[in-house]
Amino acid sequence: MKDQSDIPLPALEISTIQPVALSERHGKPGDLFTIWFGSNIMLLTVITGYLAVSVFHLSFVWAAVAVLVGNLTGGVFMALHSAQGPQLGVPQMVQTRGQFGSYGSVLVVALVVIMYIGFMASNLVLGGQSLHVIHPPLTTDSGILIVAALSLIATIFGYRLIHTYSRIMSWVSGVTLLVTFSWIAFVYGLPTDVLQRNGFNLAGFLGSVSIAALWQLAYAPYVSDYSRYMPPNISEKAVFWSSYSGCVLGSFFPMILGILIATCLVGGDVMQGIVTLTGGISPVVITIFAIGIATTNAMNLYCGVLCTLTLGQTFLPKWSPKARARILTALFTILIEIAIAIYGQEHFLTNYTNFILILLYVLVPWTAINLVDYYLVAHGIYDVASFFHRDGGIYGYFNGKAIFCYLLGILVEVPFMATGLYTGPAATVLGGADISWLVGLVIVSPVYFQLSRAGAVRHISA
């Protein structure tokens, strides 16, 4: 078979949600390591680690253990989704029609679009704030517009440019992170009691595990979008481990930086903390992390657009959106995100914490259904052509079993929820510890498997 990596691709990606033709397949597993490693080294990842101390009141050691456990656990689900891309050659949310049916998938896809908008708005706020910190005459609002423009450019050109962005940022951001840790340790100097500050509390530990796990789970609805161009004969294990190692390592170390900032400096914010701890090199560090935000936001915007196009194609099955549709949808989406970022920046940390916890509740049942169906029910064999039929082809308009399990998953999570907006009775008994995502996974996975295996539909993908 000809090596597809030698086939030149157009600078502007033409396709959007259509199945990727074999003649266009290219890439190697290492490309997945760099895209997930490089895209995670940014300020929002640092903020997520910062929460383990500032919100959940853990010591440095316990916070580090919590985010490690969360990343290692959540990364498994993220990488299992990534391995689906080369086999099916379609975006993840298109493939969801194989579990929920053509119309049944609409609710899930719509929630994922909301997820993208929330993460992108959060990134825009941080990007704008970071540019303001390193150049005060530039307002935060102006910084938001600059980051938005950089994100939009990559989305317009598409898949290949985003991979190139991330490959470069893997080296640049990785070296910057290493220099930052070295500067804090040997130039700034750690406080002598840094390991004794704060302590352990079960609710905080489980909350920190949850936000780190969610960081990985949040990639599940679109991780295979960045592996779908790879040849179908590529090793699934190689795809899994490249995605897993890149995303876990790229997430864990920036989170450790956030934990270190919160532990060393009581009060204040992450941006000012970086300035204080890195001194003279802070403009370089913040600038590179801000560029990393633009890279990650391009990924979020790109996949959010694919999901929006998926919603449209559900009701217009003869429509085959191309580059123009992607560009126009990206322009409309980025305007919404800019508005949210500008008007929601004052209460950013509180809004972000509540957002990611609520997101966890709606993502977990979906990921359980998708993975059980792909690996245990259909064994990766789907009729891809049916994904693009109005009636869902062999998958129908609705799959009542999947919809039931999805709603069941959210329902069983409610008593175990613990957020600033609502705390369930089970979470109260547990001292405010949030284990809802574990409950959702443990219940939904076997229930869906038992309901689905007898009537599983298996067809060779087109």
Question: Tags for this entry?
Answer:
462 residues, mainly alpha, Hydantoin permease, globular, disordered N terminus, disordered C terminus
Describe the secondary structure blueprint for this structure.
Blueprint: H1 29-40, H2 43-54, H3 60-82, H4 85-88, H5 92-95, H6 97-100, H7 106-134, H8 140-157, H9 159-188, H10 202-217, H11 236-264, H12 270-278, H13 282-315, H14 323-344, H15 348-377, H16 400-413, H17 425-429, H18 436-452
Helix pairs in contact: 1-9, 1-11, 2-10, 2-11, 3-10, 3-11, 7-8, 7-13, 7-14, 7-15, 8-13, 8-14, 9-13, 10-15, 12-13, 13-14, 15-16, 15-18, 16-18
Number of helices, where a helix is a run of at least 4 consecutive DSSP H or I residues: 18
Summarize the amount of helix as a percent range. Answer: 55-70%
Which homologous superfamily in CATH is the superfamily?
Answer: Hydantoin permease
Number of domains: 1
Strand percentage: under 5%
Gyration radius (Cα, Å) is 21 Å
Order of helices and strands: HHHHHHHHHHHHHHHHHH
Global morphology: globular
Low-confidence stretches: 1-10, 458-462
Number of strands: 0
- Overall mean pLDDT: 88
Termini separation comes to: 19 Å
What does this entry look like structurally?
By secondary structure, this protein is mainly alpha-helical. It has a single domain, classed as Orthogonal Bundle (Hydantoin permease), CATH 1.10.4160.10. It is built from 18 helices and no strands. The protein is globular, with a radius of gyration of 21 Å. Mean pLDDT is 88; it is low at 1-10 and 458-462.
